[in-house]
Amino acid sequence: MANKFDIQIRAEHEYAVLETAGYLNDSLGERLSKEAQELIEKGYTQLVINLDKTALINSIGISILIEIIEALDERDGTLNFCGLSATQERTFRMMAIAKYAGIFPDEKAAIADF
Amino acid sequence: MANTFSNDEVLLTIPMRPDMELAAAKLASAIAELMSFNDDQIEGIQLAMIESCINAFEHSRSPDQSVVIQYIIRTNELEFKIIDQGIGFNFIRNFDRR
Amino acid sequence: MANTFSNDEVLLTIPMRPDMELAAAKLASVIAESMSFNDDQIEEIQLAMIESCINAFEHSRSPDQSVVIQYIIRTNELEFKITDQGIGFNPTNKSTRRTNQPDLHPDMRKRGWGLEIMNTLMDSVDIMSGENGTTITMVKCKTA
Known about the structure:
The structure holds 3 protein chains of 3 kinds. By secondary structure, chain A is an alpha/beta fold. Chain A has helices at 26-41, 59-73, 86-94, 97-100, 107-112; strands spanning 6-11, 16-21, 46-53, 78-82, 102-104. In chain A, α1 links the parallel β2 (16-21) and β3. By secondary structure, chain B is an alpha+beta fold. Chain B has one domain (9-96): Histidine kinase-like ATPase, C-terminal domain (Heat Shock Protein 90, 2-Layer Sandwich), CATH 3.30.565.10. A 3-stranded antiparallel beta sheet of chain B has the order 1-2-3, with helices on one face. In chain B, β2 and β3 (78-84) form a beta hairpin. Chain B is globular and about 35 Å long. Chains in contact: A-B, A-C, B-C. Chain A binds chain C through residues 1, 3, 23, 25-27, 55-60, 62-63, 66-67, 69-70, 73-74, 85-87, 90-91, 94-97, 99-100, and chain C through 17-19, 21-22, 25, 40, 43-44, 46-47, 50-51, 54, 95, 97-98, 101, 103-105, 107-108, 110-111, 113-114, 116-117, 120-121.
């Protein structure tokens, strides 16, 4: 079934931002993972994932986010998240994601951290 | 119920109480969105669902005070069956009256 | 069914197909909203509902491929009973969706978070499971 979801990519010299829109489940997660892998292969090691337009997320989607964190870890890279709701942030902290990735209120702050 | 349940069907039972028509409409909206109906269509579906539920709430005098709604998903359409166990109404006469 | 139906209960049956968990979550959201739960609580309810549904979708191996959800409305709380007629809950049932790659950091494992998410977001979570299926009962209170 189709869904209103989308991924926007803004690649700069030093970093790239991936912005999702819609329910982050396995299918949007797989698409996000593919885009992130392509950026990593091009040499990007500083990525931002902006979840501002993703209201709902499930544990399968989060597991794919963890795979992206791991892929960047292996290249000494960094993943910063922004645009999380309070509940999403609480869930990410519970899952130890906050230990291995940055969590920032907005995209500007997430980029400034690099 | 379990054995006859279809993979293409969502089944909802709501009590006849205020705002429950919104629950039926919101569920319709969620299913229509998954099927990629556009925003105008989704709004139309919601309004029609609200009216059909309110009709049952107000006029059916159903002893069990519930409405059952089947949402039947097909490739290019969504069908809704709104069922109450009330006294029935003469819909031809009612349409004439308006 | 009709004769035992309660005025305080909404009953939903969904097929186990992709994104149907969203239908269950959005129904929960509108019921919670009509009960004046706040926005954070409504989001918590939706995420917990999504996890309980995909848990059933992925692990239950239910022959009828459906999940029944009762939404029970009380004065200050909303209770959800998510029932499948599958083989019963066993946390070691492997996910069918993705191959499990080894975790780089043991404290940030990739799968098996569903129940912990439900426990974190709801006020109580109980599981009754046997060879005839599983019912997860979750309660969210208005005053946390």
